[in-house]
């Protein structure tokens, strides 16, 4: 087995960065950043929730995310296979959502996978297709999250908007922008 070329390693890292920045864009509700991750003709398939042009999905995100107090996407196991300027990836995801409900907030924890297709166009890797699969889900209603518990007193508390503490701390990670690379 011969070692991968430097270009292949750079391409793989660019794809992994794309996958991770997607999570940040979703969790910070940053539609500008989210839009920059897809090619204009890309498809997003969230099953019965939404299936169609990715840009139309992103247009609907503010309404979809409106009842969600907390969003927290975590990538675990990833497999990426590349053939020139085309690649496919399967990424396991743990996605937590605290959702406002008529009676009480609920916790939705989904264990699932992203099934992705990517293309490198004009030197940039972006999604051309993303499907979301749910392998399992756990729901707690009412929510069991307690951000006022004394055990976390004084902790910085994350937010799903531009008031998130990361925006005050970081100079490079700002709304609509992934970290610039050399």
Write a structural description.
This protein is α+β, with helices and mostly antiparallel strands and 182 residues long. It has one domain: Nuclear Transport Factor 2, Chain: A. 24% of the residues lie in helices and 41% in strands. It is built from four helices and six strands; from the N terminus they run H-H-E-E-H-E-E-E-E-H. It has a six-stranded mixed sheet with strand order 2-1-6-5-4-3. Strand 1 and strand 2 form a beta hairpin. The protein is globular and about 55 Å long. The mean pLDDT is 93. It comes from Parahalioglobus pacificus. This is SnoaL-like domain-containing protein. It holds the Pfam family SnoaL_4. InterPro entries: NTF2-like_dom_sf, SnoaL-like.
Instruction: Decide which structural class fits the backbone.
Output: alpha+beta
Percent of residues in beta strands = 35-45%
Lateral arrangement of strands in the main beta sheet: 2-1-6-5-4-3
Please tell me the total number of domains: 1
Mind telling me the C-alpha Rg?
18 Å
Highest-level CATH class: Alpha Beta
Helicity, as a percent range: 10-25%
- How many distinct helices? 4
CATH architecture type: Roll
CATH T-level topology:
Nuclear Transport Factor 2, Chain: A
Tally of strands = 6
């Amino acid at each position: 087995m011969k070692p991968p070329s430097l270009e292949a390693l750079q391409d793989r890292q660019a794809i992994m960065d794309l996958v991770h920045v997607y999570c940040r864009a979703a969790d910070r509700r940053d539609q500008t950043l989210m839009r920059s991750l897809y090619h204009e003709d890309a498809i997003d398939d969230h099953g019965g929730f939404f299936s169609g042009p990715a840009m139309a999905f992103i247009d609907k995100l503010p309404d979809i995310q409106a009842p969600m107090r907390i969003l927290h996407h975590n990538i675990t196991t990833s497999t990426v296979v590349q053939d020139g300027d085309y690649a496919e990836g399967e990424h396991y995801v743990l996605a937590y959502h605290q959702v406002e409900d008529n009676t009480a907030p609920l916790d939705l924890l989904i264990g699932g996978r992203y099934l992705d297709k990517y293309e490198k166009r004009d030197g940039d890797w972006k999604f051309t297709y993303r499907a979301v699969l749910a392998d399992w889900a756990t729901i707690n209603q009412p929510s069991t999250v307690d951000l006022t518990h004394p055990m976390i007193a004084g902790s910085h508390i994350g937010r799903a908007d531009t008031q998130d503490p990361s925006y005050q701390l970081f100079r490079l990670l700002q709304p609509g922008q992934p970290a610039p690379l050399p």
